[in-house]
Amino acid sequence: MEIVRSQRKSSPSNAGVVTSLPLYRSAPPLEVRLEDFELFATDRLRVLKGISDGLSRGKKPDEMERLVSDLWKANMRHPLTSEVVNKDIISHFVLRLVYCRTEDLRKWFLSMETSLFRYRFRFENPEAQRALMSEFDLPYRVVNNAEFEIMKEKLGQVARSIVQPLPTADAIFYKVPFEEVPELVAGRKVFLNKGHAYVAMNQVVSLVATQFRSQLSKALILTNRKWTSTIREQEKDRLAPIVEALCTSYLGPDYSQPREFAEISLKDIDQIVKSSFPLCMRHLFEKLREDHHLKHGGRMQLGLFLKGVGLKLGGCTCILESRVLEKENISLSPLYLYRHTHHSILSLVGAERFDKEYSYSIRHNYGREGKRTDYTPYSCQKIISSTPGVGDHHGCPYRHFSEENLRAALGKMGVNSRATEDVMDKVRNRHYQLACTLTFEALHESSCDAGINHPNQYFTDSQKMLQLKNKSPA
């Protein structure tokens, strides 16, 4: 792969200054392997989603700096040192293509990339920061010594109020229109005089990030036009499927096969539903019990989850058999259903009819029919992005339930009123996975720092905690 060289024009004062932070002004003229196209984008997406989760959880600035540093080191490495810059630039432009396609996608990507840029700018040394500032050709002048002496006392008062070192004679301040640093003004972090803000060198990230955000926002609009007019059609068989899937891709562990709790007993299923099923799966299971039927979307979402938690094909089929028998007003005890065979039960309603209407989809989930694909349980992202219709019960309750129904469901699960308000606050801000995480933490009285990203992760983590509690002395 060709190495990307810096396209910057260094000013004489910044000659020789090395910075690792690109400005992504133009796509690199590279040929990228299809595997790298997807892999690089996925790695960067882990970083952006980690930032999103950290901000949603209200982490403090110093905590966020450590988080971003750790995320970048863990995900944006490359075996070849010379390719690290390439990976950075390529991954950004791939995700720009992925997230240019709708307003909501653009908004999220713009916010996360700007946040990433802010932290990476802070990691640069002062010389590199000044070099980056010159790249934007910002029309701001450095406050001269005479003006600094006049303003020194006022600048010192501001520094003390925000617990910053007092400015010295060699301190660098920029004089800028106050409306260009609204966050600094709102936080009372700058001295204002005659419509200008005096911005210290350690605060210039606000100036640069504003320019970066503006530049990226315009670029996303242009990328969307190119995608819509030409790229999507030209790459419909090669890149388009990857691009359209990346924004909803699941980046965590594979739950296609059961893990620690590989044998889930059918006779214990009702208790396990109450103790360890996330709300989305608990709701589906209860609706199956009430209505004795689920539409295709619900059967897929619940069936693949049950497969992932360790319920064998026969057990999954038996659950559905019992609901069908209830629907047909054939009353049999759970013990009878558990002990008797599949064929003897189905003789009561007709094996052919059951197979046609229900059993085929279960065997299909387990890779026994159709393409014989070993289907993977749905991730939170896939469930959240689904669009259930009238009469459907699949999807994410935190996104698709009304506030009244969600409150009722949380109360039924045993979530206390204070935790419920915290959950509802996250739902209003569309942090659905964090809302589920808070539900998990409230029910298990324990933190879940990794967050909930998959229903089967919720189940596995819940079972682990319950086992530890049962083993611990009273």
TrEMBL record:
Q: Record's Gene3D superfamilies?
A: 1.20.930.80
Annotated ranges, domain DNA primase large subunit C-terminal: 270-459
- Top-level division of the source organism's lineage: Eukaryota
**Record's keyword terms, sorted:** 4Fe-4S, DNA replication, DNA-binding, Iron, Iron-sulfur, Metal-binding, Primosome
Co-factor binding details:
Binds 1 [4Fe-4S] cluster.
List, separated by semicolons, the cofactors it needs. [4Fe-4S] cluster
Could you tell me which CDD domains the record lists for this protein?
PriL_PriS_Eukaryotic
Which GO annotations describe the biological process of this protein? DNA replication initiation; DNA replication, synthesis of primer
Query: Which Gene Ontology cellular component terms are annotated?
Result: alpha DNA polymerase:primase complex
MF-aspect GO terms: 4 iron, 4 sulfur cluster binding; DNA binding; metal ion binding
Indicate which residues the UniProt annotation says bind [4Fe-4S] cluster: C280, C380, C396, C436
Q: What does this protein do?
A: DNA primase is the polymerase that synthesizes small RNA primers for the Okazaki fragments made during discontinuous DNA replication.
**PANTHER family (alphabetical):** DNA PRIMASE LARGE SUBUNIT (PTHR10537)
Per the similarity annotation, which family is this? Belongs to the eukaryotic-type primase large subunit family.
Name the record gives this protein: DNA primase large subunit
